[in-house]
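We treat protein structure as text, and this decision shapes the records that our systems exchange. This encoding replaces a full spatial description with a residue-level series of whole-number codes. Below, we set out a record of this kind in full and without editing:
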Amino acid sequence: MKHWPSAAVVLLLASPVVAQPKAADRPIPAAAAAKAITLPPGFKATLFAGEPDVVQPIAMTFDTRGRLWVVECMSYPKWRADGKGSDRVLILEDTDGDGVHDKRTVFLDNGPNLSGIEVGHGGVWLCSVPNLIFVPDRDGDDKPDGPPEVVLEGWNMKDTKHNIFNSLAWGPDGWLYGCNGIQSKSLVGKPGTPDKDRVKLDCGVWRYHPVRKAFELYASGTTNPFGLDWDDHGQLFITNCVIHHLWHVVPGGHMQRMYGEDVNPWVFAYQTSCADHLHWGGGAWTSSRSTGVGGSAAHSEAGGGHAHSGAAVYLGDNFPPEYRNSLFTCNIHGNRLNRDRLERNAGGYVGKHAPDFLFANDSWFRGIAVKGGPEGGLYVTDWSDTGECHNYDKADLTNGRVYRVVHGTPMRWTGDLAKLPDAELVKMQIHANDWFVRQARRVLQERAAAGKLEKDSKDSLVRMVKGTDDVTWKLRAMWALHVVGGMTPELLTDLLAHPDDNVRAWALMLATEVPMPPAVAAVLAAVEKEESPFVLQFAAGVSQRLTGADGRKLARLVEWRILDNDEPNLALAGWYAVQMALASTDHPSEWSAFLESARHPLIGRHIARYLVASVPASQRDARLNFLVEHLDNVKIESSQLPVLAGIQEALASLREAPEPQGWGAVYAQLSMSEVPEVRSRAEALAVLFGNARALADLKGRAADAKADPAARAAAIELLARRRVADLPTLLQPLLTDAAVRGPAVRALAAVPHDATAARVLAAYPTFSAAEKADAVQTLGSRPAWALALLTAVEKGSVSRADVSLVAARQMLALNDSAVAAKLGTAWGTIRPASGDRTALARKWRGTLTTEYLRTADVVNGRQLYTRHCASCHRIFGEGGDLGPDLTGSQRTNLEYLLENVLDPSAVVPREFRVTNVRTTDGRLVSGVVTRDTAEGLTVRTTNETVVLPRADIEGVTQTAISIMPDGLFDALRPEEVRDLVAYLGRPHQVPLPETAPPPTPKR
């Protein structure tokens, strides 16, 4: 069973199991596979190629003759580091136009680790981790002229499986684009480039210019993007796994990630997907694995599942008109092709769910790549296997298919665009099938680079740019003129004033690609008057290409044009531009100018945060003094609030900080503000700066039973972060106050005190289920308290069931012999992870039969879930969010459940490994590090987020294990395992008895 592109699942606690229609032992035979496919009326699928002619088809592209080049990836999942391999590059040709290849040529049969392909500029470009390679074939005889040339190197191979770099495609601007996955943390550059001069990247989109030899990160973020394409207006879209599936990509953008931090540590927040829907039901991405043949109806109706691969914006001339500018992507778990409509709005695009286009009706169908062809058809590669990406042990290397889908009878095309004169290639820029447009444009670029462009070709393109009113045709002419080097500052100046925002946006990008002073001046003048949010996003992106004063001026113009009510993605684009501009200056006058130009509060907030957080502690005081002076000068609360918020976020890792100059007077003024958030944020900073009045106010509010419970909880959290000396004596009496005893028991962990354990245990019987979980977490964080907790377990005053496996593992990590001994006698032994996962899986596979699960007590199962799972996982809208939402999680796949429960640490990225942090006063904080700065660590535990200043940290140990512990089933009785699994398999929430404790709320 082979697993291919999806994204890592490292926190799954358990998945439901019920009877499941299993995948067939073999795929539908190749000869019958196309007939099994269902499509809308009028469409027809043919098997263009299948095994044995093609196997493992991971990528494909077309050449100027309309032949299909296919990469057969035999390497996956065991990438080789020795440069050897048996991956093939095939050329498949349909000489009679019947939709079935009848000629097969092997171009390359010893490729290592191949995962992407494009042809052009005299050869074949291949993703061959860790390298981007070029195989020359300048004479076009379909045979390599020599050994592969390493163009770029440095893509991560050690930590990468299905997150490999991929999806090569020529962009409208003549660059070669590609995608990269989240675990492929790479340093890319030409061979021999020092690390300091390489480009750092992980997930996102990159590009390489074949003529100028330039490489850059175009936009970062998402999870495992595995497909990209452009629409009629040259707008770039990528498809992705796990989180949202569709993204409109703007240069310089930073998109939402599944986990971890962006390669630029100062982006602070991420842009969101353009899709207004998910392709799986219930909001739980893991459950989508059961949506194929015989799978969940909810997921099937929504689109089939979370895993997507391949992207093709349909721009051909064979499908009905309503399909143009639809994006097609392969839905791996749904065994189908999804279709999204791309609809423009003021600021960009919205991806709307259209009816799914293709159903393979084959449980082995695993679509990977999709592309438009010369006859206007759609080509789809089928990896043909079961499962997806996380079982790296088995792979079926014997099969694979490529399908062609057309509407009616397509027009057949034969010929070779590379043999046409320039004039014909120029005319093809207005062809109805964009396949011809793209191929012709690349040939013109190749001829220009070789000095073989005909004399009047540029003039013809200029006339086309100026002479057409059709926006699509104008854009195509602009791109072609640009790639042949014919765009002038004068023409760009005219285009920057064009009434259509697509034209203006592209004029900005072309004018700044290789900046020329007259064009840059025109860009600055145009942006000063620009009102389109769409164009402003691109202006923000291209400002990052400009250096010095020009870049700062353009960023400030963009910032000023973004209004306080503009949508967040635009505001973030503006911030990314401002951040790069701020990085190029250390003059307070420039800082002031950017703060004064920030009309959107998000930008002002991030400016303040960046100014403080981006410098060493030795330089921080001067910047804080500057911001306090700014607060005193502006007086307007709407301008003060973002600055206060930014300072607070920048200092979040500190327990205390010196009071800036002038803060006392400014705080006195801010504390009388009529805006509650201004007062609360100013107070929080005053506490950080050691203001006695603010501390006294907080203590009084925390103890005041008549005060708002939320305000009291916030006060308790601030006091705990400050670790005030009298915190235990303040909070211990609050353990009997139902309004705040949860925050109180969590905060008590911050400061050691001899009486804390006894006071918590005395109040324990009155606690809710969530509060008991908090109490166990607090008491398990220090050796003396852990002994008191385990003694209470031994005596029966605390139920053994209240101590989760996670809590027990944390107590064992205290490395205290007395605690370990008491844990063994009072709670039980945590057995080391068994090396024989196969035997364990066989045991539970035989036990958890459908008949046995029918006898389960699902109410007890829910209660077990609350104790063991709910602090990390949400289900049916309740629970924590440290791990994935399990609302529909894997309800029909016992194998996947066993894989994750029995070996949860088998595939776990560094970002999700448990880290144990010991503090100088003897506390152990165990969880996932979500932020690591010079000032301190932010740790997500199962019940809270803990910020630990460096000064308070004695030692840090990162384990190799997931936050989900091994041995969950071992910690339960067999009937409890049955109950838990049966509960997780229910389609709807199970009601609790009226007397049962409520489930753990999300924090």
